[in-house]
Structure formats: C-alpha cells, structure tokens
Amino acid sequence: MKVFKAVEMNRCIGCLSCMITCSAVNQQDHSILKSAIRIKTSGGLTGKFVAIVCQACKDDVPCAEICPTGALIKRPAGGVLLDKDKCIGCELCVSACTVEAIHFDQETQKPIVCKHCGVCVRFCPHGCLQLVEEVQ
Amino acid sequence: MLYEKTIRVLYIDLAASKIEVKQRTDLSEYLGGVGIATKLLEETVKPELPPLAPEQPIILAIGAISGIFPLVTKTVAMFLSPLTGEMGESYAGGRLALALSMAGYDAVVISGKASRPSYIAIEGDTVQIKDARPIWGMDSDVVGQFLRDSEEGRGRRSILRIGPAGEKMVKFASVCVDTYRHFGRLGLGATMGSKLVKAIIVSGDNTTKIQNFKDYFRSYQEIFKSVTETDLMSKYHDLGTAINVESVSALGALPTRNLTENHFDEAEEISGEAFAEKSLVRKMACTGCPVGCIHIGQFRRKFDDGYDYESVSVAYDYELIYSLGSLLGIPKTDEVLQLIEVVEKTGMDAISAGVALAWATESLMQDIVTEEDTIVPLTFGNSENYSKAIRYLASRRNSFYEALGEGTRSAGAKFGGKDHALQVAGNEIPGYHTGYANLVGLTVGARHSHLCNAGYSVDQSLKDFDEQKAVNKLFDEELERCLLNSLVICLFARKLYNRETVLKALRAAGYPLTDDDLTLIAKRIYSTKLHLKEKLGFDPRQVQLPKRFFKTPSMQGVLDSTMVERMISQYVEKCEALLAEKI
Fold it and tell me: Which of residues 98-117 of B touch A (CB under 8 A)?
C-alpha cells in the first residue's frame, strides 16, 4: 500500500494543479479551499513553496486518537479515512494535527481529510508530490 | 459567474467611498474578460476628459471558465491609456484571476480618486479602502512584503501594486501582480497612481459545486495532458520565451541599439541558453497552469569589501532581454537582470522603459539632448548608467526625465527626435522588426501590441509575401483573440484552445454554446472595440510611423512606407465591413 508524500517541494512551481484536482475529485468543487492538500508560500513568492498535507502518521495517529466518535479510522499504510456518518463535526481532529493538515469545511461541517488517493500526484507536473511505498 | 449567465460587477467609487455590486445579465452576450471589460469601459470612460482625470475608470475582468481549466489564468485590465490617449488594454497572470473568482466577481470597475494615498482590500463581500500613507513612495517589491504580512488570505490572495513610477504618473508605469507578473503595457500604473491607489488586494472564500463532474474532469484531463504530455507548450517551459533571442537576431529582426541595427552580434551572450546556464534558478507558474513559464534568474552583487554580497532574483523573458539587452547594447546576462531589477522596483513597463532609454541614448549621440539633460552619459552597453537613468526616469528627476516620462513619442516630438522614437501610435515597440505584417499589425492592433494579431508571426509564416493575405491573417487573428481574451486564457496556449477545446470546456462549465455563437461573440467584441477606439479619436490611417522603421532593414529587407499605408487602408476596409454587419 502506498502513501503520498510531498518529497521535492523545492521543485514546486506553484501551479496549484494538485489543489484544483483534489477539490474537484474528492469534493466535486471548483474551490481550492476544498482541497486536502494546501500549497502555500513561505516568505512571499520569493520564498519557497510548502505543502501542508497529511503526513500519513502510522502508529501514533493524533487525529484518530482524539476523535470521540471513532470517525477517523487508521489506514494500514498510514493516515486515516473519515467515516462521515460517525463524524459529529467537533473539530477536535483539526486542532490535534500538529502540521495543520486537517481543514474544517464550514459548509458541510465535516473535516477535509487526505485519503492518499494520489490524484494530486497524477497532476503534479514537476514530480514534487509522489506516491511512495509505506516506510517499514 | 461559473454556471450562471449573470455577470457580477463590483463598482468602487473612490471619491465617494461607495461600493456597489450589480448583477449584469445583459453583459453575458460578451461572454467575459475583454468582452465585458470593453463594454464596461465604453459605459464609464469619459472621452472628453484627459486619461488621468479622476473620473476615468479602471476595469478588471475575468472570464467564464477562469481558474478551473489549465492556462485559463489571466485577468484583463482596461482603461484609457495615459500613454497613447486611447484604448488601454493589458493582461496579467499570477493569482489574480483565481482570487477574483473566489471573491465572487467577474469584473471590478474602479473610478474616482481617493482623498489620500490608499489601498483597496477586496475580501469577498467586504471591500475596504485603507490608508496607504505609510507605504506611499515604497518600491514595488517592498510594498508587497509589507502587505503580505498585514493582510489576510495567504495562499489564495493576489496583490497588485505600483512603484514610485506609478505614483509619479510616468505614462508607461506598470502594475506588478504577485511579484513576477504585471499589467505592463500602456500605463495602468500611472492611472492607479493618479487615483492615489498604491495597491489592490483580492481574496475570497467562494466555493462552487461542480455540476457535471464527469464532463468537467474529462475535459480538464484532456487539456492537462496536451499541456504536459505533448510538445505544444514545452518551449515555454524549457528555455521560455528567451529561446527566441538568438533566432530572431539571426533572422535580422531583433531591434538592436535603438534599431540602428537589426541583429545583435552578441545575441549568443544573452540567449535563452545563456540565461539558463548562468542565471536560471527556478521556474514558477500562474495559478492553474502546469507549464511554469516564469523563469527566475539570479545574480549576486557585491555591495562592500569584505566579501559582502547580496543576491537578487528577477523574472526574465524575451521582451525584457530585447528592451533592456539588445536595444541598449548590453551583452551580459547579469547586467540585463540588474536592469530588470530596477525596472521592477520602480514599477515601469520594461519594454517602454528600454525603448525610452534607447531613444535618449541616440538623442544624446546626435546632440539633440545634452548630458546635462540625461545627468549621466548614456552610451549603448553601459548598464551602470542605464541603471541610474531608470531611477531618474521613474522619479522624473529633472525636466528631461519629466518629458521622457510622458512617453517616447512625446519626447521625440518635444526635442525633435521623432524619427528614431521607436513607437507606434504612442506605444513603444516590442522586440520584432520582422517586416510589413508586424508594422501594420502594431498600427492597426487594438492596443498596438504584438499580442493583438501576432504580425511578427505572420511575417515569418508567409513564404512569399502577399499583402492581402497578410492583412487577412492579421484581421482574422485579432478577431479570434477577442474570443480567447474573453475567456482570458494565456495566449501561449492559443494553439491548444482551438474552437473544439473551447466549446468543450465551456459546455462542461454550463455554457452550451456553438461554434457560430463564438464567432458572433468575437465579432461583437471586436466591433465594440472599434467603435470605442473611434469614439476616442483613433484612426490608424493617421498614425505617423517613425522613419527608422523604413531605414533599418527588417527581416524582409528595407520596408516601403507606401506598402504599409496601403495595407493599413485595406485593413480599415475590413473593419468597416465588420462594422456594417448586423451583429
């Protein structure tokens, strides 16, 4: 099983194709605000781009641990899957994620969680994002 | 807006501090972008007043599918050009199109003059006119740094700003968009400066449900694949537009030393390859474009003994290497980059600034102006003095630079050096001296830019030159670009966005248009532009072209002015036929 990692962000051109396709495929929305991956600049455009994205925590998974209803289910390769029916929209997972990779969707009142589907990887023109085998 | 026929226009009246949003369904027959911007300009411009009168508007507009397909990344700005005195039209990439879309506006109309230096913060429905007194006077890059920290919307906002040249209303001042892109041509920076607007920040958090995911994503993927997996766009990504420096010079079409020559002997030293090998440190993209054509060159500069260096990164492109390179006789990549840096900081159009300085240099050589005028001795190849001169020009240091800041045409007329003032209808020329189609194209083109109708390309594509064929090609290209610019695609993708692709993309976004509809829209837009230009007093047959164009041989040899006049008349006839059509 694979997880997706932002491995070569030095090469990022800031096209945001990853965000556009993540929002489209996973949330059927045109807005980049619906994307599970966020590309931001650090120190303005003259700085480097950073990807704020699920790190695929494996054994200790803070967001899953804190979820009071068991709506975040650990993926075997790392990261979590969201069971929307169980989610009560308490936002605890958002604050539990140290890298701030979980975004809360105010419209649906559910968190936007990366499921490591790899669509962003397919549309990254510079190989910054890659699907890698889980690290043993 | 996406999936809607309504055009949402934000009106900002700086004088009255009044903000208004109108739903303009009537504008939908212009599709978007340059179509709606032309119409809005026609409605709001005051032809009887000077271009920098407070009443004159600034229009920004995006298109029907902005931000949701690859390379549909541009925003059009329209205004009354302070440089030419007629229709101003300029395009910028960066993140502005996406930001406007997320803020919920198809167009913004800014009129009036603020009571004190201000900046406009558009955050969705919240529009504020804020105090810019502390940032007035700042270089363009520093303003950006300041506003990035003080304003919200990191990662999805766009920041437009002017430098000192805009404040001083240099008639070819530019507006910097998101550090590396610009509304460069025709002086939008001066118009912003005249309104006391230092910057505009746009952000929003609109979301839009995709209505037909299958159709949309299929089209998206097809376009994305043709961009990234075919060689349609590779030249723009690899060496970038700078790839043309050597080839255009070899053709004898690269204006050099104020077009006293048509090729640069040292073109190899400032070629796309030279920049890539010596300076290129990264590539960047406008939001939504996987090409990444923005080439960032870096150089280091010693500022003190004791091994004290600073590093500077700027974006370079073909036109800048022409205007601040070959045209000024500069054969070193680092020196070209240094000049780009000063032009960036002061906020001027790089083409116009280079042409103005090239004119000043030759005028000094011909004793038309004195060294007292230019403050430093300007000579071709001396980048250090050009660097100083750019600062003098931006700040309009003395009466000479005050005059030069009015534009090269104006300076040429004032000092008596109009024969070597490289401008067409007041706009300083881009880097091509290919021949008849280029020259006629610049004259008749709606904004006197090589991007109106690509005359330089027509010259290169016609094996045996045929004037009627060339005129037809220019006309057809201008017409088709009205359509592409109503979507506001990046024109680098013009071959990709053929009619079939445009129709598919529009259909997937809820606009079931036909090929005939698109033709009609293009004609409607072009007619509106022609009417507007006429109203502003423009007649291409009255344009006086400088003699230099007919002296220095072009790629096609020495050009004959009567042929140019004939072609312009033929073009005007085609325009008249279009205007006679019932649209």
Answer: 98, 102
